[in-house]
Design a protein that fits this description.
By secondary structure, this protein is an alpha+beta fold. It contains six helices and 15 strands. It starts with a strand and ends in a 14-residue tail after the last strand.
Length: 406
């Protein structure tokens, strides 16, 4: 039976936005402070790394769980097997294509599309667009196949927070659930997100590794003295060739340390002066939408990145937990692309993520290559997509002022 983080006592709803969730405060596991250490400080000789696992002696007493990270930082867990989707029913592709009506681009439409494009650019003049002579319209309908795979992956890491004598959800409260048994609310399909949760019953309390449980450490700027050599007179009490004493240090040669404000020590930034840390296992869940795309029938020379963004007319859509390859499509390249995309996503995600949903679509994209004459020269531009976007190769009346051609 899974463990629902949002329903746990003292926990927070799993629908919170991405980022570390507020941690549930369950159980009590405190360690008394030693009053004799209250004012002591220690030299800081290293910088702590995050995340950091607690010492091995604490881990030895824990039950064996799949989230236990005794070596290394991150651990990736193989997901449970997914339920197979339904096979794709035989499709009459001729009926799909017959009902698809991609509008033909006429000379009037081609001219209006170019004028709209030119007017949107500050360094283009509309004279050429209004007076050009269209010589030829080469039209082609491309077929675009897309496969989207929405997956979920889970990894864990040790992390910590200052221990403030709050309630701790440690192993004395029970055994931690397996990471794939922890229930969380999935975001809308095909919308990427990352969320973090504390694994129940994984908390351990240990003195701070940075200040050795003292809450403060000796200032590295003044080495605990609270005063440093005056930077103005370099400790000489007077500046060179000046009879008067240094006004920056009032002739003492020393100034209060700005790093610690003269206290000689600083509050430990790791434990925030609390002297102890709560170590726990953090579950990081990532929802990712992988995309495979293929455009068939390319003969004209319009850049491929434009065709990837082009709006098309959808002629086929299939969505399920796992989709099956398309077969017997009139364009064999589309059927082969469907097989290749599904195989690639399955191989790439099988060992590290769980596939939640797949969606495959086929769209028809109109593409027109326009050849026109202006002032004795021949030029070309492209109209692509159902919304008549324009790509200009070499516009005759263009002045460089920083705008882009595409």
């Amino acid at each position: 039976m899974g463990c629902d983080l949002g329903a746990a006592e003292g926990g927070h709803s799993e629908t919170e936005p991405s980022g570390t969730q507020a941690l549930p405060q369950l159980g009590v596991w405190t360690m008394d402070r030693d009053p004799s250490e209250e004012g002591s400080v220690v030299d800081l000789s290293f910088q702590a790394e995050r995340p950091l696992a607690p010492p091995a002696e604490l881990l030895e007493g824990l039950p064996s769980c799949d989230w236990l990270l005794q070596r290394g930082t991150w651990q990736i867990f193989s997901p449970p097997s997914e339920a197979l989707g339904r096979p794709l029913a035989p499709t009459c592709w001729s009926s799909f294509l017959e009902h698809s009506r991609v509008p033909v681009v006429t000379e009037e439409v081609a001219r209006e599309a170019l004028l709209s494009f030119v007017n949107s650019k500050c360094c283009y003049r509309s004279g050429a667009a209004g007076n050009l002579v269209i010589r030829e319209l080469r039209q082609q309908t491309l077929c675009r196949y897309r496969l989207e795979t929405f997956s979920e992956s889970r990894v864990s890491e040790w992390t910590f927070q200052p221990f403030t004598n709050h309630l701790v959800n440690g192993p004395q409260r029970g055994t931690s659930p397996r990471l794939w048994d922890i229930k969380v609310q999935v975001p809308p399909m095909f919308q990427e997100d990352t969320r973090k949760f504390q694994v129940p019953h994984s908390s351990l309390v240990k003195e701070c590794h940075k200040c050795h449980g003292r809450g403060r450490y000796k200032c590295s700027g003044c080495h605990g003295a609270g005063m440093v050599r005056c930077p103005s007179c370099s400790g000489a009490k007077r500046k060179a060739r000046q009879p008067r004493r240094c006004h920056m240090c009032s002739g003492s040669g020393r100034r209060r340390c700005s790093t610690c404000s003269g206290r000689g020590n600083k509050t430990c930034a790791t434990c925030k002066g609390e002297r102890k840390l709560e170590h726990f296992v953090l579950l990081v869940i990532t929802w990712k939408n992988s995309l495979f795309e293929f455009v068939s029938g390319r003969q004209l020379h319009c850049p491929s990145e434009l065709l990837a963004k082009a709006k098309g007319e959808n002629v086929f859509r299939d969505e399920n937990a796992v989709v099956y390859p398309i077969v017997d499509f009139p364009l064999r390249d589309i059927s082969l692309a469907s097989q290749r995309g599904i195989a690639e996503h399955s191989a790439n995600l099988a060992s590290r993520a769980r596939i939640l949903q797949q969606r495959q679509t086929i769209e028809l994209i109109p593409l027109t290559e326009v050849h026109y004459w202006y002032q004795g020269k021949t030029y070309v531009y492209y109209i692509y997509g159902t919304d008549h976007q324009v790509h200009v190769v070499d516009y005759p009346e263009r002045f460089c002022c920083g705008c882009t051609i595409i």
